[in-house]
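Please, structure for the following, as tokens.
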Amino acid sequence: WLKLSQANIVAVFSALLLLRRFQSARTLPAMAGTGAGYDLSVTTFSPDGRVFQVEYAGKAVENSGTSVAICCKDGVIFAVEKFLNSKMLVPGTIKRTFPVSRNSGIAVAGMLADSRQLVARARSEAHQYLSSYGEEIPPEILAERIGLFVHAYTLYWSIRPFGCAILLGCVDKETKKPSLFCIEPQGQVSKYKGTAEGKGKMAAKTEIEKLFASAGDDLTCEKALVHVAKILHKVHDEKDKDFELEISWICPASKYEYSGVPVDIMKAAEGEAKRMLEAEEQDD
């Protein structure tokens, strides 16, 4: 290199630069199906206004087991379809419902590791608010703060969006009024009477609408228990792996505190749900 003149060095680097551009041009057709290069960074919009990295995070949510949450008359109930990746797994492992505070909880869909980070953030926000103001954080403020945190991860090229969606349920300690929020990978926060995320979310949402149409505003968590078990068994794809049902609630049965549904009660509800599905199939 020392013997080369300055002109020769410039010529060599120019040739290398042309070669790199030629190789990049050859790869563009292959990338056309995945965003034609607009999916390489979360900070890049496509010509039609899409952010592909955020959409891919949504796909990660759709590939996971279905999560359902319903805001009932007397509380909130969460139910999750947990795929069993191994027959050697201990029952109750790989939890997908978590407490945030005594009166609030979260059900997750998508990448579990990402979900745990959001659960930790929600607990931190709840603790900081309690320490600062001496009272529990209002559900709307907690949901908005988590949404802002999630949205921040869609703004910088050095980080990636969260590949998960969370269903946040709370019951006011004083008024006993329940509320339910969904925070999606783009940071959007929506309030629902009942919703679902994951692989079977569309079918699950249809079943939730039917449930509210028949039960109205008198639906309690104890009545909804059998129905959420039925919904998850109904939307489960037989092509997928076997799954374990996980249900938690915040209602009078748990003294308005987040708690997992007792195993015997959950098993009884799951058995009743299966009998209801069998009866429906026979009627058809």
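The beta strands are 67-71, 76-83, 97-101, 104-110, 164-171, 178-183, 189-191, 194-197, 243-250, 259-260. Helices lie at 6-31, 52-62, 112-133, 139-152, 201-215, 221-235, 263-283.
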